[in-house]
Amino acid sequence: MRAFNGLLLLAIALSVLPSAAGALELGPCEPAKAVKIIDTSLEEGKTLQQAMQMMIKAKVFDGSKACITFIRETSVTMRDAYPRAFKALWLN
Question: What does pTM read for this prediction?
Answer without folding.
Answer: 0.76
